[in-house]
Amino acid sequence: MLATLILLLSSVCILHQATGYSEGAPDNACLSLRPEHLKSEQKEGFPYEIILGTKQLECSDSPPIINFTLKGLKGEVFKGFMIQARMGTKTVGTFEPEPIDYMMMDCPGDRELVDEEGLEVWCDKIVHTEPGKNTATHYKAEKRNSMTFYWKPPANTTGDIYFHYTVVKDFDTFWVNQQSEPLTILESRKR
């Protein structure tokens, strides 16, 4: 009886480990962007890139929506991902829900630019925003070669923003906390 119980519990643990997070990254991965796969991350041969729709913008009357694409090089596919925009170590901006091919999460770190009423100020104009949604992750572990994301930069901010991201090729093969080229936000020339 005891042997059967041990075998059953071992099977459940192995099954849980093998399934990974096919429905998105866990909340506790917000800071490190590290999946809990109980394996070591890959250190070399990163076969993916983020391609920015624009590399530079300036403040305008309404917050611009930036698109960028996570793409596998030479036809490489991925099953999972987690992406955040950061200025230094601070997570900034929000992912847009439409068109949605990914799940959004609220990780700590991007609410300093929102006033008490939940309004975000953009170039001295007030716009409505939904709280959070500063991190994108997969919601299905489907093989893909590329995926396009839509993201809104933070208000009243200038400087370089980098997209930090983790890509999971399969349960045993993943790269953690990679960094895109910078997206530079310039002071508005209209001020």
UniProtKB/TrEMBL annotation:
Organism domain of life: Eukaryota
Keywords carried by this UniProt record: Antibiotic, Antimicrobial, Immunity, Innate immunity, Secreted, Signal
InterPro entries: Ferric-chelate_Red/DefProt, Reeler_dom, Reeler_sf
An annotated GO BP: innate immune response
Gene3D superfamilies: Reeler domain
Signal peptide: 1-20
Boundaries of every Reelin domain copy: 11-191
GO CC annotation, single: membrane
Subcellular location: Secreted
Pfam families, A to Z: Reeler
Family: Belongs to the insect defense protein family.
Name by which UniProt lists this protein: Reelin domain-containing protein
Organism: Clastoptera arizonana
